[in-house]
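Project standup — Tuesday

K.O.: blocked on the structure for the chain from last sprint. Re-posting the sequence here as requested.
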Amino acid sequence: MSPKWSELLYQYSFHLGVASVALLTVYTTHYIRRNVSMSDLEATLTSLNNTINNTITDYTPVFGSLDEKSQLLDGVEIQVIGRSYVLPDDREMFERDVESFLWFSYRRNFRAIGGTMFTSDRGWGCMLRCIQMLYSHTLIRHNFSRDWRWEKCSIYNGILRDFLDDPNGLYSIQQIAKAGCSAGKDVGTWFGPNTAAQSIRTLTEFHKELNLTVQVVMDNFMCIEDIKFFCKEDELEWKPLLLVIPLRLGLSECNNIYIDNVKHCFEIEQSVGAVGGRPNSAFYFIGYQNDKLLYLDPHVTQESLCPDDIDLDNIPDETYHTKKVDLLPWDQLDPSIAVAFYCKTEESFDDLCQQFQDTITGGSGSLFEMVEVRPAYMTPPRRTPVDKLLENYTAEYDEVNTEDAASDSDGFEIISNS
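H.V.: unblocked you, prediction finished:
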């Protein structure tokens, strides 16, 4: 069967299940044997796909009060990225804080990702939506502050515009998927926390006027000297930093020895949250209550906003905010997670490193190793020219392998089989 039909059937698998996809495969083979033209068959399958998208996945989220499912407890402290609340007294402030995060979820009927027929990210794009949420919160912090609350203005509107499902959007689903190709991830396959962070790092390099650097700590080892090397290109002026630290908290499940230090990450003023999840599902974590992590859930399919059909200077943004939050028990958390921090100044970074040293990098529950100076055996860091990044980025996207997308069962790094 050609890649085109395989990809359409792959999209259906997220809606209908394996048994129904098998039936569709027989149906498609029957059409081919009857010598029905490929264009007619494509139209039939596409029509069916659109019907599925507009029925089974047509769930409209409730943009109201907290859902009962979240099971938030009254009288117990809730941490939300450096802020503390206790319900019911702080409910209004808590909900106002939560709805001020940009919420990105599955969308359908956006312009196809180049080189593929994907017009929806349902079933495979949850980690991409989570990294969009984390990065958009970083940009809110970069332009405003942690205590900014949702209100329309030109700067906020510009941030949201960069994340719309538009091939020209700086941090759109199309662009992140494209950046993932440079990391060996085909469009339609699942990303892990590290791949998602690396994709955002690549896209940020192309947006120099943003005056922001993204650094991803590798192998649970952070060298302060190397981070400062990238944040002070002229050795004088500090470039604001998004620091992403992928962690492995166990083999098939999280070790309880790490729980307090993970929770402490959300108490740090520089925190911008974390991306991770449970098997088959990625979430954007923004805090905790007791031993449960608080998250925004991207697993809601909504209609995509077409940039050509809206006023880009006044984007209708109601579907990009929600008060709905959920809690994930620690014992359900997949051990692959990435925590992230934003440091606008060098003083802020120094303070962050001191907090790391005092808490999360010491003792038996240490999350990662941190050193001040690069060990002699390590290769000094070097900056990759933007034109070289762009060359790799474009070339990889032109060679997207859609035929094998459905078979990459190991693509989502936070999945465990336990």
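K.O.: great, moving the ticket to review. The longest strand covers residues 281-289. The two ends are 33 Å apart (CA to CA).
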